[in-house]
Amino acid sequence: MTTTAPAGTIRVSVPDVWEVVDIPLNPDRTIEDLKTEALQRTLGRTPRADPAKYIVKYRGALVSDERITVGALHLSDRASLIVLPARRRPVT
Fold first, then answer.
1. Is position 44 within any domain?
2. Domain contains 39
3. Hey, which bits of the chain come out as E strands?
4. Percent of the chain beyond pLDDT 90?
5. How far from the centroid of its chain's Cα atoms is residue 76's Cα?
6. Which residues fall within 8 angstroms of residue 76, CB to CB, at 6 or more apart?
7. Confidence band of 6 (pLDDT split at 50, 70, 90)
8. Neighbour count for residue 85 (Cβ, 10 Å)
9. Domain that residue 15 falls in
10. What is the distance between the alpha carbons of residues 8 and 24, in angstroms, rounded to a whole number?
11. Percentage of the chain lying above the pLDDT 70 cut
């Protein structure tokens, strides 16, 4: 009997709520899908969780085309993404 090792996970940080979400690594998923899932798992279905109001960064650089797949971006097991608000908010 042969078993397949798990593909791994992608770590997605959502600093708005100081949480990190582990999402299964799937080379066919888009970065947009990962962002949406991370926001839903951390912020729920609140107006703040609108994916259009957030950007994704990988290794400090903006992922400008979120339609790119995990495989095309060459993300490996335990790669880290960060989901940030697209607009800076004033500090009060």
1. yes
2. yes
3. 9-14, 19-24, 54-58, 61-62, 80-85
4. 74
5. 13
6. 8, 25
7. low
8. 12
9. 9-85
10. 6
11. 88
- Does residue 90 lie in a domain region? no
Edge-to-edge strand ranges of the sheet holding 19-24: 19-24, 9-14, 80-85, 54-58, 61-62
CATH number at residue 24: 3.10.20.90
Number of domains in the chain: 1
As a whole number, the mean pLDDT across the chain is 88
What are the angstrom distances between the C-alpha of 41 and each of 2, 52, 59?
33, 16, 22
Token reading at 30: 């888009």
Q: What local confidence, expressed as pLDDT, does residue 68 receive?
A: 96
62 falls within a domain? yes
The yes-or-no verdict on residue 3 having pLDDT over 50 is no
